[in-house]
Automatic annotation (TrEMBL):
PANTHER family: TRICARBOXYLIC TRANSPORT PROTEIN. Residues 20-441 form the DUF112 domain. It holds the Pfam family TctA. The keyword Acyltransferase does not apply. This is DUF112 domain-containing protein. Keywords: Membrane, Transmembrane, Transmembrane helix. The chain crosses the membrane at residues 20-49, 109-132, 138-158, 165-184, 204-220, 321-340, 360-384, 396-429, 435-454, 466-490. It comes from Geodermatophilus obscurus (strain ATCC 25078 / DSM 43160 / JCM 3152 / CCUG 61914 / KCC A-0152 / KCTC 9177 / NBRC 13315 / NRRL B-3577 / G-20). The keyword Manganese does not apply. InterPro entries: DUF112_TM (IPR002823).
């Protein structure tokens, strides 16, 4: 019970008006920057990091907890309202969240996201306090072969299992892998798919691809549906910032399942919460098909609840890996590592012994940030939703402008804007031909991880392919994959038989 007493002592250090003010300021600033298309939570941490250097260490780190989790919620706001996730970890929840917003339920979608963030983040914070060393040990079991198996599982699960058409899903996966391969091949120095353009040698940033496919592709699609006539139609959100009893009952299992997906991934250096959020989305979509009246594609609340809880649970346990091992498992965690080092803290196994007077208030700040964000964002949900009262023609024009600003701000390159237009047209074509977007994004995000992991595994084993199935983790992941494929095939055959009856 030593951890509990230390945590109580940490609360005693931070429960003061000044600490509450710093958490509130951090949450507001993190959300405000995270909501801007193309910036996101990682950019929020990067931009606001210098502001904390003038503060006393405990207050600075407490403020950072608000920035960290506030930026994550800002990612979801832009994804739900404008179909432009601030970060790739908010992509999965944007699919159904945006459809909820388009049907007038933006406030409910944001409330679902806020509660999911609270549940996932709080459970993760509890585990960090009591089981950080144990969670960190999970990461040591993942080598190149395990990472490759994890990526393959994500590829097939999203493209072939949870999509309506396996052929279209695999086609989308291929598009994403091609986009991920553009640029210099690091081991050999060979240019791939650059077409002789030096601008493509560094590859296409994930921000450009995400904003182009989701935001600009949707803008082009809406313009195509309007037929060039323009429209002043508005989407009128309801002002209810809370969930009805039926909505809460529908979302609760998804919150819990999403939290379960996200917890272990925070300690695996796979780059962020993309895998658990997409796996959660796929699970909820698969379960939705069993219902008498499936809601996915029309704004399913489970499609927001699961990924949001998964993303924040991953963010919470990522802090555990950072504190216990000094292992940053995402770009945002790497920035936080720099912040810790700025104050003379060296995350690792001895951190709690050497700097417990700062670390325990920081851990208590996680819980405080969760509560502040929940109290702050539930009443603000209808206010954010009022953005959708803007006439569609103005709204989508504004989305295009902000998306362009975000892409340019991320790389300060005119070429990125040209690439954005090209991929935006690709996004329009995919919508017109009913090719899913999710497999493209998961391939772009995890494609490099899969490639590098495969090469490392083969190099370390002298090109022996048996290394890919040489551990219990890899075998378990592939068995899970085969079981999913078998279930998907059985389900589709059963659906065809019912249709023929």
């Amino acid at each position: 019970m030593e951890q509990l007493s230390n945590l109580i002592g940490g609360f005693g250090d931070i429960l003061s008006p000044s600490a509450l003010l710093f958490v509130l300021i951090g949450a507001l600033l993190g959300t405000a920057v995270g909501v801007l298309p193309g910036l996101g939570s990682a950019m929020a941490v990067a931009l606001l990091l210098p502001l904390t250097f003038v503060l006393e260490p405990t207050n600075a780190l407490i403020m950072f907890t608000g920035i960290y989790f506030g930026g994550l919620f800002g990612d979801s706001i832009s994804g739900i309202l404008m179909n432009t996730p601030g970060n790739s970890t908010a992509i999965a929840s944007a699919f159904e969240g945006y459809r909820m917003a388009q049907s007038g339920r933006a406030a409910q979608a944001l409330a679902t996201a806020a509660i999911g963030a609270f549940i996932g983040g709080t459970v993760a914070s509890v585990l960090v306090v009591f089981f950080a060393p144990t969670l960190a040990e999970l990461a040591t079991g993942f080598g190149p072969a395990e990472f490759f198996a994890l990526a393959v599982l994500a590829f097939i699960a999203i493209s072939a299992v949870v999509t309506d058409s396996a052929v279209r899903g695999l086609a989308a996966l291929a598009i994403g892998l091609v986009l991920a391969m553009i640029g210099i091949d690091q081991p050999t120095g060979t240019a791939r798919f650059s077409f002789g353009s030096s601008a493509l040698l560094d590859g296409i940033p994930i921000v450009v691809i995400t904003v182009s496919l989701l935001a600009l592709g949707e803008v082009f699609h809406q313009a195509a549906k309007a037929g060039g006539r323009g429209t002043q139609d508005t989407v009128l959100p309801s002002g209810r910032p809370w969930l009805s009893g039926s909505e809460f009952r529908a979302a609760l299992p998804a919150w819990l399942r999403g939290t379960g997906y996200g917890l272990p991934f925070g300690v695996i250096p796979a780059g962020g919460a993309e895998v658990p959020t997409f796996l959660s989305y796929g699970t909820e979509r698969r379960l939705d098909r069993r219902r008498a009246k499936p809601m996915f594609g029309r704004g399913a609340i489970q499609g927001v609840a699961g990924p949001e809880a998964a993303g924040n649970a991953t963010a919470g346990t990522a802090m555990g890996a950072l504190l216990a091992l000094g292992l940053p498992t995402s770009a945002t965690a790497a920035l936080l590592l720099a912040a810790f080092q700025q104050y003379g803290l060296q995350p690792g196994p001895l951190l709690l012994e050497r700097s417990g007077d700062i670390v325990w208030p920081l851990l208590a700040g996680f819980f405080l940030a969760m509560v502040v964000l929940l109290i702050l964002n539930l009443p603000f949900a209808p206010l954010w939703a009022q953005l959708l009262r803007v006439p569609k023609s103005y709204l989508y024009a504004g989305i295009a402008v902000f998306a362009s600003f975000g892409v340019y701000a991320a790389g300060a390159s005119i070429i990125d804007l040209v690439i954005m237009l090209v991929i935006g047209v690709l996004g329009l074509a995919m919508r017109l031909y009913d090719i899913p977007i999710a497999p493209v994004l998961i391939a772009v995000i995890l494609g490099p991880l899969a490639e590098y992991s495969l090469r490392d595994a083969m190099a370390n084993s002298e090109n022996d392919p048996a290394v890919l199935v040489s551990s219990p983790i890899t075998i378990g992941l592939y068995v899970l994959l085969l079981a999913g494929l078998g279930f998907a095939a059985w389900r589709r055959v059963a659906e065809r038989r019912r249709a023929d009856v």
